[in-house]
């Protein structure tokens, strides 16, 4: 069954098909048929359509092969020759006497291919490009458009941001901890506004209290590498109010050097340091029993 | 007592001389917290008829005593276990203090006494008469010691070494007797052999040289052998055992440092400075460090931060720090330097008697001060001296005086030189801890005064002389009589000073050492224009308690227009006025620069001063060469000049203090200028902050411009482009770091006309917290953040409360809400990223208490109680406990007071126990003149029991309990006690009780009833001296005299052989229980002790069931309220000393 055409494109194709059917029918009449089954007509129409389509397709290929966009008569001829059609018989056939004249297919609108979304004005060709060349594509397909805002370089805003970011992270984190664990509260009637993570005793309390946290260690490494010189200088300086007595300090320096050489040698042989706590533990002597 | 005999020699209070002692601890059980070992003392009798040897021993369970391999009888009596025995209804502190002093005296090694009395077996009498050597061998054990040795055993999985379990000796003054029997005196020196067998994963650190370390046969343990060849007092012997990490000092290989696992990086950093201290002391003393090695051990739950012992020091592990920590660094270095100073004076050189203690503390404190001056500069040193001076002055004025060199005549309480105090100063063990701290403070200040008099050069020569004498003596290995050269005495020291300097310092000594009290000067002046004379009036208050009259020279410095001039006035009996001629005519030449004391010439704006007078400022005793308090009156502009132009930091601090009373724009300007001046000493600038805050508050109605210090802070520490944001932290400059920390704290004290902290200031502080950024800083900002929280707390003002509504969230002040928000976040973040020493938690807890106290948050101790639990870091616990103490006071909570007192008794950490009492004393829930619902009979009983018997294992704690009792109830009978109903009867009883300790000091012991302490160190034997006193005879405590036959036997025995002549002979005689030579091996093993006690019970019952039962029934009536104490009457039979009671019958048979 045939479907009811609805779109303009369908109408267009239907009209052409109907014309082809008329052509097939008239050719059949010419050949002496009085009637034909519908299926046969349909098949023949299909064959004709295929044939014509093939001619078009081949002709287009030939023309493109020769770097053109529009097929010429010779393209059609070559196509027909290639398809095994004797071209020379064509003028005579066209002028046969019993041919029937068929009305042109009804004028229907060429189906419009939906336009791609255009963004902005397409650029005209520069003068050195021939006008037949395809147009520039839409600008958005090749022009870089900034997708970020201007970087914030204002110190104040940066600090503001860093501060609030840190505060938010801390608050969220501590609230989460408070929500998931035991809490204490300063108000009997309210446990959620100022939730305090419950105090939990440690087994070895001094470790957490004295050792720097990993974060701090990391920080220290970072700052150390960049400011190593400063460190050695300032370590003692601000605490030494009087720097003028250089006597003992000089001595210290010499002692330091001496000891450096000592400690240097230590790396090689630990045993050079005669410290009783570093000596190996002795095996028990065999003692007579008491 | 013995010092006065002669200046040259030291006369031992003992009839023998100790030359060598072996201490061998062969088993330490961390699980059970027990120790097993023996000691062997080598002694030479110095009198022919030596028949008993008194030694010190507390807590130790003594299994067996042998003298030269012969079994010896011994008795063990410690009257300090329970000071007052008869149920004293009077309960007054006077009575207690006397009894306590008598009890301490009765076992005082410096009086030749001791808790342990060993009878020399009769077989050896002949030997003794020839003054031949005796070897006293004592097997002992310690079970769960409550003092002397402290075990730290974390409750977790793993072996003891993995857990970081450790043990160390500790105590206040001579406390070695708590962990092994010895002569626990600073004056009995001997050489030592120390042996400790410990788990192979552990290290035992002790005194002297580690000779060798040997595995035991099973290879599971090793034995550390130490030799200490320098004669040393038992009180300077120490021990620390734990799975320590070992660090050999890279600069001095003889020095070894020890710390607990995981802390090695901190140890490296912390001790990296120590060699400089060594060098300094060796240089100024021109003397090498006396010992061949030095060890530092850092341990947890320390009794004190620094404890110095022969060739080793024990420090709190909390002194360790990393390179990121600023504030702790100088503090820790000071502790190290203090410990090292005490190595020379205190450990190597010991003292003859308690009354010479001030010399040692004085010298070590003095050379420590010299180190401070060199290390931290003159400003810091002078600031410190001023601080110490202020402290001692305040303490003496409060309590009535600190006496450095007490001399006791005959030991009668009436001659007590410190009758103004509620404790006896005759013994270190009866001394309040605060008094002792102040005593040390005064000692070094007096040394400085001596230096002022004889010059530092001579002073150091004296020290050098003492040290070289001692080191010569110490090398005399076999001449123990020479060893007394290693003991310093007051007279010896003074003689040395007069020999070296040729100066007579006797008046100075008389004033500050032999006498207590400080001087209180009031000064004012007038300028007499006509005569061009400064009329200075100096008055003294010498009638108030704690003061004394000063007669002698006094330096006054007058800064005039033409320069600074020193005048020495003679302060005499009746002259108050002193005329000082001025050098300058009143100002003529305005342009001239003004010369200062240090030679500097400066331009001054002289418009503020009085046109008629050439005086800029006046200072009395600028060098602090008198222990004094000066209240001096001069005009505000003079103080301002003094602050701006006087270069001495002490003068600047005095000026700042004085300016508080002059809230004027000129004062404000002077302070602001000082604050901004970078050359100015940072502590002065910090002080100026607080003064400025006070002035601003007084000037609140006329104050113009932004809040004080705000623009200054902004200029110094905030970004140039955005002044409301603080720069990212950079603490490289420590002076500005300290200022940056302090300014917000001071600013938060500002108040507006409504007496509220200005909103602007609060927002400013909140912004500092908000924008604080430490990412680029190489130092930790934990102290800075903590102080910002302190600042928040300072900004809190009392809540406006409408008819006492209950505090809820809804009526929370919006400012307080902001503060709480910060505190909550900080406190919670501490759980995730803890700060060094949890400084932030500490500040948060304090701030919360402030909010509670001001009525913004409901007052509730629950939070603090959870932070006060064992297992939190000690600083946090103290802060939490302080809040609970404060709550107890403000809310008058009996429950909380009970909770605190329970903790005093049960907390595992001695320092915490001590600190709670200390805090309760400083912030008492009530005082003696106050009505309080808390003050009731039960509390009196409880505290009485605490000091009477509950704290016998820790001198410091007991004295702390005494202090608290004094604060709460005063010296006399607590007012809350009901009046005695049968006054007459009770009085009689009391009379006797009072009399006893005074007339016969040891009768306290005589009247002793069995004390059943919770642990097993109550071994008591009542001892009676003679049969003469019939009344006392009736009172013979039969439960302790196990067998009357044996008792009589011994007395006969005693009579046969007269007791050793001694000064204390008259007072107490000891009855002896000779011990049969029966095999005792059973008792020397711990595992058998329970068996033994069962066994023992049996005998016990048979012998004295009747009497004892009777007696105890009687006691029940008295003490029905006292369940804890009332134990099984035979509980003590489990005590070690009772081992002998099994044997006594067999002997008497």
TrEMBL record, chain A:
Residue stretches of biased makeup (Basic residues): 280-290
GO molecular function, one term: translation initiation factor activity
Alphabetical keyword list: Cytoplasm, Developmental protein, Differentiation, Initiation factor, Nucleus, Protein biosynthesis, Transcription, Transcription regulation
Keyword Phosphoprotein: no
Region described as Disordered: spans on this chain: 218-290
GO CC, any one term: cytoplasm
Protein family: Belongs to the TAF8 family.
Protein name: Transcription initiation factor TFIID subunit 8
